[in-house]
Write a structure and sequence with these properties.
Helices cover about 90% and strands about 0% of the residues. It is mainly alpha-helical. The longest helix is centred in the C-terminal third of the chain and has 30 residues, at about 30-59.
Length: about 60
């Protein structure tokens, strides 16, 4: 997995989680939802990179 993509994935997860918590604390549903979506995108990016790694090491 490329270090750059892994870093992007982790950053998206952390920023998304933070946005979600801030939105929840402020009662701002829109920010909460956007943060959750960003966090999910980070998890998906990480899963994609892990899948690519698994295919690379299989051959």
């Amino acid at each position: 997995m490329s270090a750059r993509e892994k870093m992007k994935a982790k950053t998206e997860q952390v920023v998304g989680k933070t946005m979600r918590k801030v939105g929840h604390a402020l009662g701002d549903r829109s920010t909460t939802v956007k943060g959750g979506a960003l966090q999910l995108r980070g998890k998906a990016r990480l899963a994609k990179e892990k899948g690519k790694d698994a295919l690379r090491h299989r051959h």
